[in-house]
Design a protein that fits this description.
Keywords: Signal. The chain is mainly α and 169 residues long. The protein contains 3 helices and no strands.
Length: 169
């Protein structure tokens, strides 16, 4: 019992802090508490580092966003310049198209004039050919009349011959 009484007294003195430090250092509960305190200190340092990293990341992200906005602004400015160039090019192209249309209209006018001359010439040729056709028709009619006259004479002659033949019979 003496041993149990000694342990119980030491525990009581330990709890009250009356034992020397070397005795307290061997206490497993004290070691657990020190370990927990060290763990908390380390965790606090790590949380501090993490927060610092987060702040640095946010700051860096802000710089990157600023760069993006600056880039977009520059791109917008460039796009405006390119749009101006495009509009100038379009205007230039439209001027060329209008010039080409004017030249085309002039050329079409010349071609229409040539066509009108060709039509007039063709009409003259048609008139000449129509005169030839009419002359041919007149000649054909005259020839038909002459042939009809000869046919009539032939019929008359044949009738006379038939009458002569009938008289003889």
């Amino acid at each position: 019992m003496h041993l149990a009484s000694l342990v119980s007294s030491c525990s009581l003195l330990l709890l009250l802090g009356a034992l020397p430090g070397w005795a307290a250092n061997d206490d497993p509960i004290e070691k657990v508490i020190e370990g927990i305190n060290r763990g908390l200190s380390n965790a606090e340092r790590e949380v501090g580092k993490a927060l610092e990293g987060i702040n640095n990341g946010i700051t860096h992200a802000g710089r990157e966003v600023e760069k993006v906005f600056n880039g977009l602004s520059h791109m917008g400015s460039q796009a405006g310049k390119e749009l101006d160039k495009g509009v100038q090019g379009l205007n230039n192209g439209l001027d060329k198209v209008a010039h080409g249309i004017n030249n085309g209209v002039g050329q079409a006018g010349k071609e229409a004039e040539k066509f009108a001359h060709g039509v007039n010439h063709a009409a003259g040729q048609v008139g000449k050919e129509a005169d030839k056709v009419i002359q041919g028709v007149h000649h054909g009619v005259n020839q038909a009349g002459s042939e009809a006259g000869r046919f009539g004479q032939g019929v008359h002659h044949a009738a006379g011959q038939a009458v002569n033949g009938a008289e003889k019979f």
